[in-house]
Amino acid sequence: MLANTKNETNIKLPFSFILFSLLCLIGSMALILFQGESIINSQFRIPAIWSAAHLFILGWALMTAMGAMYQLVPVAFLTPIWNERFGFIQFTVTAFGILYFAHSLFHNPAGAMLPGLITLTGILMFLLQMYMTLRQQAKPNVLTLFVGTALISLLSAILLGILMVFSMKTGFISGHYQAVFKSHILLGTAGWFTLLIFGFSYKMVPMFSLSHGYSMKPAKYVFMVYAAGLAAAVISFFTGNNSLLTIALMILSCGFAFFTCHMLQILQKRVKKKLDYSFRFALLAIPAGLTIHLGAFISSLIGSFQNTVGYLVFAYLMLWVALSILGYLFKIVPFLWWTWKYSKEIGKRSVPSLKDMMNDKASIPVLSAFILGILSVTVSIVCEQPALFLSGQIVTAGASIVFCYLIITVLKQ
Amino acid sequence: MNRKEVVLSNLKRVMDPELNINVVDLGLIYDINFPGGGKAVITMTLTTPGCPLHDSIVSGVKYCIEDLELFSDVEVNLVWEPAWTPARMTPEANQLLRG
């Protein structure tokens, strides 16, 4: 079978997303730093926290994911991006929308409808771009299922978010506000990010560990179980059935456990025995995510889910989603810059290897500090310790700034 | 050295930047053909079908053969079947990875 070539994306496109996302990461960390008192008192639903959360989730995590997808989708699915020019317009609309949205949430949440719609437009443009790209794929596979369902979850989460803003303003479906809110959080985190990370892990884990000869059959069971858990959880929110929620959380934990086992199977078949440090951190996020899933299930089982859900969502976003993204960015960014600078020089002269582009060992102190900071912040919220929160968040913000600095240094290579 | 050996030797300049091992020792070169008329046809693969570096490596291989100035036309066919396996690596490459 002859392979399709010339799928590379114009490097400026993914880089635009990633560089913008770094600014949002620092901005969100700084905002959280000054909201210690509210967070300690479990007052998560205040304008500054909404602003910080959306800056972090949309501005950093979502924009990073979009940038990475512009790079990874063409190579993972062997099909070029549908329209790169449209991609640059999509970046501009989304970036403007997110900054305007975060600003409105901070100063005037009731006026967040317009910036929310601009952000929605940007995300819809991205979804259209991905739909048009993926439909060109000659032979859809299980990765298409993960990534496609993640994109549908993203669309659902955004529509539910807009519905929440509309409901706040007009009182429309106010009786279902809680169910809409919970579904928005679930589909935005476990639906979008987790399914996306699962999907791309199936490509990146074998690639970075040079694993061969493993079976991909378990992947479809991972998908089926996890997707069933998501559906059951959404139904439980709208029916108000707590027993169904507990069952849904158990199914989600099982799906995550199957994924963890499958990753272990793949890693056992690896040729590269010494894995890069940053990649190990991305892998470390997997047991962290599983532990949080199990924690959610157990807390629901013993009837304390309502009290712990805030901490669990925070830990899930930071130790599963963020740690995965941070670990993989250590690999993706040097690759992007290398492609931009040296791709055409390969074979013509001696070019640096990807390892020469970034100090992989630097990921050890930076990502260890990030984990330590997040754990401190989580404990400080549970134990209501303002001093611990402040020190933990300073460490987290510091690690984020150093991370951004390391990313910028790649551009000097 | 015959033409095939010359080509193989020159292809060792093309390194996989992720693994820092050349494409010959990685066992990525499946076949080298000279169908006549000054043409060289290289059939090769990559370690994984989703390798983000595939355009770079393929163009590097093409350049290296063209650089020999022995052929008027160079064609590089990238194939996924048969799939690459670690068994195709030289013992040296194996040693580097398993370290």
Features:
heterodimer; A: 413 residues; mainly alpha; 14 helices; 0% strand; globular; B: 99 residues; alpha+beta; GMP Synthetase, Chain A, domain 3; 3-stranded mixed sheet; two-stranded antiparallel ribbon; 5 strands; 30% helix
Structural description of this entry:
The complex is a heterodimer of chains A (413) and B (99). Chain A has helices at 12-33, 36-40, 47-76, 84-107, 113-134, 142-170, 177-209, 217-239, 242-268, 277-301, 305-342, 354-357, 363-383, 386-410. With 413 residues, chain A is an all-alpha fold. Chain A has a domain at 10-139. In chain A, helix 3 packs antiparallel against helix 4 and helix 9 (242-268) packs antiparallel against helix 10 (277-301). Residues 1-5 of chain A have low confidence and may be disordered. Chain B has helices at 3-11, 54-66, 91-98; strands at residues 15-16, 21-22, 29-36, 39-44, 73-78. A three-stranded mixed β-sheet of chain B has the order 3-4-5, with helices on one face. A two-stranded antiparallel sheet of chain B has the order 1-2. Chain B is globular, with a radius of gyration of 13 Å. The mean pLDDT of chain B is 91. Chain B has a single domain (3-84), classed as Fe-S cluster assembly (FSCA) (GMP Synthetase, Chain A, domain 3), CATH 3.30.300. Chain B has 99 residues and is of the alpha+beta class. At the A-B interface, helix 3, helix 7 and helix 11 of A face helix 2 and helix 3 of B. Chain B: Residues 4-77 form the MIP18 family-like domain. Chain B: It comes from Cytobacillus firmus DS1. Chain B: It holds the Pfam family FeS_assembly_P.
CATH topology of chain B: GMP Synthetase, Chain A, domain 3
The end-to-end distance of chain A, rounded to whole angstroms, is 37 Å
Oligomer: heterodimer
Report the mean per-residue pLDDT of chain A as an integer.
92
Number of strands of chain B: 5
